[in-house]
Amino acid sequence: MKQRILYIVLFVLLSGGINSLHAQQVTVKASIDTTHILVGDQLKLLFEIEKPKDLLIQFPQVPDSFSSHIEVVNRTKVDTLVLDDKTREKLTQSLFITSFDSGVHQIPPFYFRMKDGKMLDSVASRALAFQVHGMKIDTTKGPVDIKTVYGAPVTLKEVTPYILGIILIAAILFFIFYYIKWKKKNVPLFTKPEKPAEPAHIIALRELDRIKNQKLWQQEKLKQYYSEVADTIRNYIENRFDVPAMEQTSAETLGTFKQRKDLVGDASVDQLQHILSLADLVKFAKYTPLPDDNNLTLMNAYFFVNQTKKEELKAPEKPAVEEKENKESAEKITEQ
User: Fold this and answer.
1) What are phi and psi of 234, to 5 degrees?
2) Could you tell me the residue ranges of all domains in the chain?
């Protein structure tokens, strides 16, 4: 008994030297971020030590399970921070611990070994405690998970492949639908764009020039001559005024222009009446017109087209241009 007391006295005397030097200079702090967790939750155990820079301290080697109820999930490296006075520093380390047993559990003190030259000592952290709460179990539903499943937010990276897939499928379906539609029409899938249609008066004047150059009435082909002149004027009326002259009788076509005074002037209506009436007499009544009538019919056709065509020139220049073209047409017919 006396020998044991002597050892205790010697230990106190030996450790007192270091404590006298560093007891007031070294501070050890252990803390946890919460004192209440659910079964399986984690809490952080933080060690903080402030000491002189020349004093060596060794952190304890904490095992993966330092009690029957507490397990270490993860641990960080020791982080060193130099304090403002440059002679002291702060060391920190975090342990993430958990427990799967409900109840109050104690975290024991941890001892940090110190060395100052040849002198050794240790300093301990304070003991801590936390409580683990169990989950309420509904015995009427059977076994359930400790934690309920929760939905994580969907990121753009995750949905991008689905979006691209939907776009690709839609494009394929559209192409198949488009192909079937054109297949039914029995036309090429890809066609060249059509050339813009020529103005109605250009087509009509070209046809009248062709008829004039054929000299049909000089060859006594009067029926063909008057039919081609009348058809040329009827086609011109359809393309220029959207009047179905090819399906109408001469009286119906003339009636349309007499009712709609805004389409052409009275002089043009008279010219059209001369062309259509004389053509009907030749085709249906076998009427033989005079040579002057033949010339006048072609001249009236030129006048009707030139006077009723869509002008692209400015309004003040229109009468002069029409008059010049009418004179040129008349001169050509007279020369024939």
Assistant:
1) -65, -45
2) 22-133, 200-335
Q: Across the strands, what pairs with 90? A: 50, 81
Q: The whole model's pTM is what?
A: 0.40
DSSP character at residue 139: T
Longest dimension (CA), the chain: 166
Q: Are strands 36-38 and 88-98 parallel, antiparallel or unpaired?
A: unpaired
| Euclidean distance between CA atoms 271 and 254, whole angstroms | 11
Per-residue pLDDT of the chain (336 residues; tens, 9 = 90+): 444 443 443 344 444 444 444 445 888 988 999 999 998 898 898 999 988 888 888 888 888 887 788 999 899 999 988 888 788 899 899 989 999 888 898 988 988 888 877 778 888 888 888 999 887 766 676 666 666 666 778 888 888 898 999 999 999 998 888 888 777 776 665 566 555 578 888 888 899 899 889 888 788 888 888 899 899 999 999 888 888 888 888 888 888 888 888 888 888 888 888 998 888 888 888 888 888 888 888 898 899 999 888 765 444 444 555 556 666 655 655 555
**CA–CA separation, 209 and 146 (whole Å):** 99
**What CATH class has 22-133?**
mainly beta
